[in-house]
Each structure stands twice: as C-alpha cells, then as structure tokens.
C-alpha cells in the first residue's frame, strides 16, 4: 500500500556535513558503482561515451557560492533521497510500487510494479527520483538496503556506499529516530537542518551547515619575498653578468 | 514541467468529453432537449470517444503501459489511482444511459437517473484529475486554489460549446445552450486571467536558501553535478514554452475564449441567419478545443518545479 506507516521502528538516514564536504564526487561514483549491481540495478547510462551523456544517478553533488555579510564561500552540496517521514512520492503512486518501510523508514520502489508514470518524481521537491528511460521504471536511492543488512560483508562495511567512500567523513549513517544515537547527537550538536522544511515532507536526512568562520587562520598570505639587492663583490659581478 | 503531448491531449479531450457527457446526461435524461436518434447517437458517441481516446492516450507516456491495470489499486492515497477508478466507473452509468437514451429512445425515469449519475461521475472524475496537479506541493503554480475550479470550469465550458455545436449541427440551434456556452466561456476567460495574474505575482516560499539549508545571504549555483542535462532537467526544467509564454497566452486567449465568444455571440444575436449559426457554432467549438490545447501546454510549461532551484534555474 502507498499509505504511509503511522510510525517507523527506526529512522535510518544520512547526515551530510556541508562544512567538510570537498566535492570530490567519490560518493557519487561509489553509489553508482554499488547500485548499478544492487537492488535497483541497473543504473542505466544512455550514450555514455557520446555528446549527450545521460543516465540514472542516486546522488549528485552540486557546488554553490554562499555569500553573506561575513563573506563568500564555496559549498559542495550532495543531493540524494532524504527518506522523508511524509514522502508524497509514496502516496501519489497509483500502483503500490512505492512504499516506505515500517521497520526502518527507508523509501523504496518495487520495480516490478512500477508503470513509469513519473508522478512520484513530480511529487518529490528534492529531485531524488530519476526515471530510467531504458527500463521504463522509476529509480531511487535505497540507502544501500543491500549493504547495511548484508551478512556477507564485513560489519564495518555495512553502511551505504556513499558513506563508506567519503574521504573527509562528511557523510554519516545511523538511526535518526533514536535521540541517543551518535548521528542524532551530531545533528543536535551542529544544528542540523531539514531541506525545504516549509513544504512539510519532514526529511529524515539532515544537513550540517558550514561552521562559522574563525579568525585563527592567517587572513593574508605570507609577506612577499624581498627584492634582490644590488650587491658588490663576486656575487654582484655574477648578478651583473647574468642580468646583461 | 515538460508538457507530454499525450497528457495535454488527455486532459483536454477528457475535459471536453466529461463536460459533454454531463450536459447530455442532465439535459437528455430529464427531457430538456428532445433530439433525434442521430443527435443522440453522435453526441453521446463523441463524448465517450473523447473520454476513451483521452484515457488511452494517457497510457502512452507510461514507461510500462502493459502494467497500467495496477494503477487502479491505490485509490486510498493516490489521486491518479482515484482518477483511474472514477474514469472507468463513469462508463457504467454512461453505458446504461446510452442504452436507454440512444438505443431505446427514452427519457425520464431510470434514464434520467443514469443520466444524472453520469453527470455526477463525470464531475467527480474531472475533480480527481485536477487534484493530481493541485496536490503537488513542489509546483506552486499547480498547488493553488485556482487549479480544481479551473479544471471544472474548463470541462463545463468546452463541454457546453461542444453541446451547442452538436445541437446546431444535428438538431437545431437552441438559445439556452448557446447562452450557457457564452456564459461559461466568459467565466473560463475570467478564471484563466485570474489564474495567470495569481501565478505571475507568486512569491516563492521555497528558495535556494531553504533548498540547501544555507541560511541568510544569497546562494548561487556555480557548478552542476554533470555537464549534460539529465532526467530532472528534461522533465522538470522544461524551458521552451516559458520563453514564448506571453505570445502563447495571447494565442490561447484568442482561440479558446475571444474567437468562440465572438462567434457564439454573433450566432446568438442574429437568430435569423439560419445555416450560418450552425457554421459559427461548430467553428466556435473547434477553435476553443485548439485554444485549450495551447492553454494546457502552457499549464505545464509555465509550472516551475522546486528541483530547478538546485540547478540555478
């Protein structure tokens, strides 16, 4: 059913630190690599080596310039499914292909039921769902449901591929429904925010805003090197000869 | 939003078809108009043909049309599913009404009851179509109080203009039908103008600030995730008609409202023009349907989805 569960036992999700994300795209490629062979496989690429490259991605990293009175800064912004608590993408689905799991809150698509009407992608304000024109069904982030419960891989690897790949630990995975979890503590400590809270989708994933600027770092570069003085003696002679 | 041709045709055709069905159900069922066998056959046939063609075309934009039957299952939560159920359910009273009104040549009694039920079911179906769009919060132009009444008004308007044209062509020009077509055309024009005015003055509550969680100041997109356009931009970031929106608005108003109103008013004012009234009534209906296709195109093209914010559009 596409009716939403009243509550979920867990609220598994991601916390993304906009302060430390460097926009390296490692999470993007790692996501693509895992998921093109995973639950929603394949993540079709259309014309991958041509001039009109297109394809399905669950995670895309934007770059923005945020200018405030304190100055400007570049913010790298990974965008993926937020596994909302009231996801309209699920309720608009006419076939029951989209659903939100009662056990952990993950929003998934049953590819065998999807008719490819695309209405769910219209209902998602975040652009998390992407249509696979080749297969004719909608695809989306699974929160690596086939990794996080996978007994065949080492326990430390049972996190979403994007989290495992992040070299700056800008991506965190855990239960946001448990206020004592490390991830919930991190959100509380850093003042994590919802995206587009005004639309009322109640995203599970949170974003940690960049930290305030500090004055600890040098605000100007090192002083310029001193100009070479005209010297006498042997070195002065060498300088004159070479300058000629 | 990208205007899929099949969806534009679908909403225009079914709107006119359901509108016509409602007028036939009430006016025919209760014996307000007599109409011969051919009028009854052709007019109800056209209404059901428009509805069926629209519904069939709506499956054309599906990725997996062979699974379309699944769309009847989630009526508890999905307006699209409700639309599917309501549209198919409408064929039951409409079919019975057709048997009684067209084949048996009856009116009143159970034929009036099925006619009325057809009209109600038609109105309900148009409401479900409208709610598909009106319930989409990411698109401010659709998620407004103008959408639901708009769909109902345009179904009544196109239905009544068709109804008038069919009466003129196969029965005889009738003053009340013509008057209703004129009034609904004026209401439709007014409503569309008010809708455009409302959309033009929309103040975006969702900004790139709230979309990225970056508070204060300005946020500017400096780099897309990929160099080429993707599904999101092709589907949600459609920009072709927005470029020509003002010209298309003029064309839509001329074809859907101004020209039909002028033709109908002429036919209405000069009751002694005979055959010309028939020509004007039919031309008004054709012009309006063409205009509504442009209007529906704009409905999609001018709708702005929040995901385009992420791409700095």
What are the key terms here?
heterodimer; A: 244 residues; alpha+beta; Alpha-Beta Plaits; two-stranded antiparallel ribbon; elongated; B: 313 residues; mainly alpha; Formate dehydrogenase/DMSO reductase fold; 70% helix
Short account of what is shown:
The complex is a heterodimer of chains A (244) and B (313). By secondary structure, chain A is of the alpha+beta class.
What's the helix count of chain A? 7
**What is the beta-strand fraction of chain B?**
under 5%
- Helical percent range of chain A? 10-25%
Spans where pLDDT lies below 50 across 5 or more residues of chain B: none
From the structure provided, what is the oligomeric state, counting identical versus distinct chains?
Answer: heterodimer
Helix content of chain B: 55-70%
Largest sheet of chain A: 3 strands, mixed
Count of separate DSSP helical elements of chain B? 12
What sort of overall outline of chain B do the alpha carbons produce when their principal axes are compared? Answer: globular
Beta-strand proportion of chain A = 15-25%
Distance between the termini of chain A: 86 Å
* Envelope shape of chain A: elongated
CATH architectural category of chain A: 2-Layer Sandwich
Report the uncertain regions of chain A.
Answer: none
The total count of strands of chain A amounts to: 11
Mean pLDDT of chain B: 93
**What number is the mean pLDDT of chain A?**
92
How many domains, in number, for the residues of chain B? Answer: 1
Structure, described:
- The complex is a heterodimer of chains A (244) and B (313).
- Chain A has 244 residues and is of the alpha+beta class.
- Chain A has one domain (12-208): Alpha-Beta Plaits (2-Layer Sandwich).
- Helices cover 20% and strands 20% of the residues of chain A.
- Chain A is built from 7 helices and 11 strands.
- A 3-stranded mixed sheet of chain A has the order 10-1-11. In chain A, strands 2-3 form a two-stranded antiparallel ribbon. In chain A, strands 4-5 form a two-stranded antiparallel sheet.
- In chain A, a hairpin with a 2-residue loop joins strand 4 and strand 5 (71-80).
- The longest helix of chain A has 11 residues, at 233-243.
- The mean pLDDT of chain A is 92.
- Chain B has helices spanning 5-29, 37-58, 79-103, 109-134, 147-170, 175-200, 208-212, 231-236, 240-243, 245-269, 275-301, 307-310; one strand at 218-223.
- The two termini of chain B are 12 Å apart.
- Chain B has a single domain, classed as Formate dehydrogenase/DMSO reductase fold, CATH 1.20.1630.
- Chain B is mainly alpha-helical.
- The relative contact order of chain B is 0.14.
- Chain B is globular.
- Chain B contains 12 helices and 1 strand.
- The chains are: A alpha+beta (244), B mainly alpha (313).
- At the A-B interface, strand 3, strand 4, strand 5, helix 2 and helix 3 of A face helix 3, helix 7, strand 1 and helix 8 of B.
